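#structure-requests
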Amino acid sequence: MCIRDRYQRRVHGGKNFLRKMFMRQFLPLKHITSLKKLVTAKSLRMFSLKQNKPYREEDQVITTKLDFDSQFKTIPTFRVIDLQGNVIAKEYDNLDPKILKRIYKKMVQLEEMDTILLQAQRQGRISFYMPCFGESACVIGSAAALNDYDLIYPQYREQGALLWRGMTTDEFTSQCASNGRDPAKGRQMPVHYTSSKLNFVCVSSPLTTQVPQASGAGYSFKLKQQDRVAVTFFGEGASSEGDFHTGMNFAMTLGSQTLFLCRNNKYAISTPSDEQFKGDGVAGKSKGYGMLTIRCDGNDALAVYQAVKYARQYIIKKKEPAFIEFMTYRVGDHSTSDHSILYREEEELKSWTQINNPIIRLGLYLKKKGIMQIDEESDKELRKKYRSDVIKSLKAAIEEKKPGISQLFLDVYDLSLIHISEPTRLLSISYAVFCLKKKK
């Protein structure tokens, strides 16, 4: 039974049911006042209005032919620059050179950081890693087009968005090393970044949980009439999960200020996309929900920026969600637990890294436009600088002390609760006794 039905059955005509339902058992007393401001009579109006939509024959589209239809028109892929960095859509060749230079440098920095941290995992210095090789344009290009106060619900390959918003190398390495400087105090797997100050919700390992969460956040922004968007990243494999469809449908029917960004990187771990669905990619699914949809070249940083910028403006103006499918390719393994050479040919990898490399494409464009001097020597110097910073930071992060046992439950609850504080105290005593026995 949906919330609307429960509302009408139990308190038809009343205004306090939802408030009571959420407040009675689940919220501390001090939070009730703030929630009442959000759950107002105005926001509950949808639960009490009766529908009146009589049958209208003129609204029906009737046919006398018994024709089953499985045909669809393939959605084209939006592109601004070609594989050689030449502009093919002059109308959208209008980005600020400073932004373009920063996008390029951040893409290079991300690649070097991923390389070092991936090697660190192979050496046993950190326990896990997930690189963003081949997908940097659709992540960093998107972050550049968004406002910094837009709330990002990531999947697990969006470290480039944090890099764009100002997360430092020390913060990245501290999280991966799970040391005392890690904001999550070592309680998350490496690459499961989070930053409240950068409006970046914590990465969650279970697939697609972030999609319906972003739908709800976007609905909240709409109710509060905020100039803010909830943005969620996910891969094409996530679109096979039920949470994807739930989140999309909720967002569209409620008019959430949510931007759905799908990185179609051709593989859901080892499952190729043509074994996941037979329709017109993921964008075809989005159109089925009536959502504003575009397919974009995810390795074209200019196209990514323009598509995300337009989609964000549309969401704020129309008060409804939008969807972008980035056509890109996962060059690296899915994670350090994967070995992709077992299910794809080396020739396939080389074709993407050599022919459709997002960093090379943007670099060629910047060079032809005279925006940036890019050659083999300058590229080596830039990469050397970023690589040196990560190596130095990682060494310090690994040497940093781990969080103490007394911090195990800090930040989990807003209040200090007796059923948490007492076990923590006993655990600290037990650990101290263990250490003394070990020394003897």
